[in-house]
Specification:
Elements lengths: L10 H13 L4 H25 L10 H19 L7
């Protein structure tokens, strides 16, 4: 593992970060490592989205097929829960 160092952090910012870390039950170092890790994961996610954005992902299902499955599942759920049928 390597060490990262941030210089010239204003005291009020450090105090706020320390308070956030404390609220999460973490040390400041553990909290900041989580923040950096989250940023790296977001960047990785954006790279995947950009890579896939030019592709076409379709389905062979029609809108009617999808709506039929949705209505059927809702009807089954309502019957299971004993929800009275509503006329539309």
């Amino acid at each position: 593992m390597v060490a990262l160092q941030i210089r010239d952090v204003p005291e009020d910012m450090r105090d706020k970060l320390t308070a956030i870390a404390r609220e999460r039950g973490q040390s400041l170092q553990a909290y900041l490592l989580d923040v950096v890790g989250d940023e790296v994961r977001r960047h990785d996610n954006l790279a995947v989205i950009q890579r896939l954005s030019g592709r076409s992902f379709g389905t062979r299902l029609s809108v009617d097929d999808v709506l039929g499955a949705l209505h059927s599942a809702r009807r089954e759920r309502d019957e299971t829960l004993g929800v009275p049928e509503v006329d539309q």
